């Protein structure tokens, strides 16, 4: 089984090389297209002024502040900031996103990408001020031994996103996502013959048992996805349009050829590791914490559970702070969710039968600053169609407010 970074210089692939055979497999393997507006912290790295959708994209990255992007060290190896840029705020590389120049590249001294297996595979890009306008940066996972451990425990669901090759020369224009399982460290190391160092690497793939020690295949990241984020979430489902409840757990680094080979999971830079996390946070320290609104409680999602009826999301209250409030309503589908309404009300549709709904309230301070978030517990499920006449039940649900996003990472 060939080991190869999941890689980098798409512009320099040579069809006759062993690496090229693997590159031809590239994109998010067995994933789906991301919805418009999803994963707003995901960026594409471009070079030489080429538009992202015209072959200029060669790696991914993750916004951790409006001016800071986390990517893989093997993506930036040998590069200079001049001519490097990120494309942001758009799931389609052909869409009208923002292109922001990179002013500096910072890689820790402990990083080593000279061999077949990258070590401490992280770089931080600084963007030209003011950075990405309207940025939605994601938070970095806590250090190991913190309360965040349960977010990425073995077997926990994780999501990786990216743009990659559709064939040997053509990059996907649309961002793709795939859900993976965190794989047990020991099982991953054994699968790779002792090449995985849990001191700076973490694995994700398809777990075949609850302890994530048996490993399947069929879902993976691949060439062109390098540098993108592996994300965990603080809730049992995930709405991909806001930085809460997501946490950056890993950075796409290296894997197998073919990318979705059974029994060998993908390997990611371990963001909770001291070198990787410390390097990221060293670029965020000193940044002023935003004036993030704190919810008084949780929004209440109320209404009659029947197709054609309307449910309403109520304000959780924000401590009397002057905020601009927005609401979104989602249909919960398994562990993920699909946005069905951008506003406080939604009329139930046939597709909602057997599904639950959840609402997200967002508050932006009138004077600027970090956004506050609060979510309801799921409402439902919406009853299936019935031939008998019954009286629908009016239901109310409340939940626990999510921890609001902040740049004051510790």
Describe the structure.
The protein has 410 residues and is mostly beta strands. 6% of the residues lie in helices and 32% in strands. It is built from 4 helices and 23 strands. The protein has helices spanning 18-23, 73-76, 185-191, 274-282; strands at residues 2-5, 32-33, 42-47, 57-65, 68-71, 84-88, 98-106, 123-127, 139-140, 157-162, 176-183, 201-205, 229-233, 246-257, 266-270, 301-304, 310-313, 323-333, 336-341, 345-347, 356-365, 372-375, 394-397. Strands 10-11-12-15-14-13 form a 6-stranded antiparallel β-barrel. Strand 16 and strand 17 (310-313) form a beta hairpin. Mean pLDDT is 79; it is low at 5-27 and 388-410.
What structural keywords apply?
410 residues, six-stranded antiparallel barrel, 6% helix, disordered C terminus
